[in-house]
Amino acid sequence: QTEYNRLGVFASGVYNFENGMQFYGQFLGTEMHNLTASGTRFIQPSGGTVNTKDFGTVYFVRYLTPAEIGSPQKTEHHETAYNFAGGLRGTFWDDKFDWDVGVAHSRFKYESSFPWLVTDATYKYFWGDRDPVTGKYNTTLDQLKNWMKPITPDQYSQFADTFHNTGDSQSTQFNVTVSGGLSELPAGPLG
Questions:
Q1: What's the average model confidence in pLDDT over 22-38?
Q2: pLDDT at site 148
Q3: Can you give the pLDDT at residue 105?
Q4: Which of 3, 103, 129, 136 is most buried, taking the most CB atoms under 10 A from its CB?
Q5: Residue 59 CA: distances (Å) to CA of 47, 68, 121, 143
Q6: Residue 15: is it exposed, middle or buried by C-beta count within 10 angstroms (0-12/13-18/19+)?
Q7: 3-state class (DSSP) for residue 142
Q8: How far apart are CA 64 and CA 39, in angstroms?
Q9: Which H or E run includes 6?
């Protein structure tokens, strides 16, 4: 983890009115930014093989070094979350009943971006075009040699891209509560 920044805020309060009613509220908010970096990438298809027309099945794993990638591959995460709740409460009917009217709202947002290999472009760069009928790659000897020799950051940029993920979720609730005893019975209050 290269960088981690987090900010959190919490506030809560109550205000009492002269007539016995009470306003209450609270806020909780957080913001986080996280940056990680990786110096290598590797290429390995499912099963570790590629079927080629002229060379048959080729088993491989190819590591891309920091010099080939050009710089550390940074992944950024950004999260924002907050929650607000507030309302009014009091009593009525000679303080026999309590009432509460409140609202709450919360929201969570997420964004991330990260560089990654684009599968089709990566395979095309190293293995050539794929035959749509047989599913085999039309790999030339020069492409097979390219597999073994180092590449440049410019070549890497031909089959890598920056991917983005986002998410946003929110919820609002409204509540009304009335409580208290309806009447007294020998065993206790009813209600």
A1: 94
A2: 81
A3: 98
A4: 136
A5: 9, 22, 19, 15
A6: exposed
A7: helix
A8: 9
A9: strand 3-16
pLDDT in tens, 109-164: 999 998 888 988 888 888 888 888 888 888 888 877 777 889 999 999 998 999 99
What letter does residue 65 receive in the DSSP assignment?
P
The pLDDT of residue 190 = 65
Place of tokens 């591959």: 73
In whole angstroms, give the CA distance from residue 95 to residue 21: 11
Q: Can you give the three-state secondary structure of 10-37, one letter per residue?
A: EEEEEEECCCCCEEEEEEEEEEEEEEEE
Structure tokens belonging to residue 107 = 């929201």
8 A C-beta contact, residue 138 and residue 131: yes
Which amino acid makes up residue 178? Answer: V
Which pTM was predicted? Answer: 0.68
Q: Nearest 5°: CA angle at 121, between 117 and 124? A: 130
Half-sphere exposure of 59 (CA within 13 A, CB side): 1
At residue 109, the pLDDT reads 98
Amino acid at 84: F
Identify the pLDDT of residue 28: 97
Sign of torsion over alpha carbons 57, 122, 146, 137: positive
Q: pLDDT by residue (tens digit) across 80-90?
A: 999 999 999 99
d(CA 146, CA 122): 12
The secondary structure of residue 44, as a DSSP letter, is -
- Is the Cβ–Cβ distance between 71 and 25 less than 8 Å? no
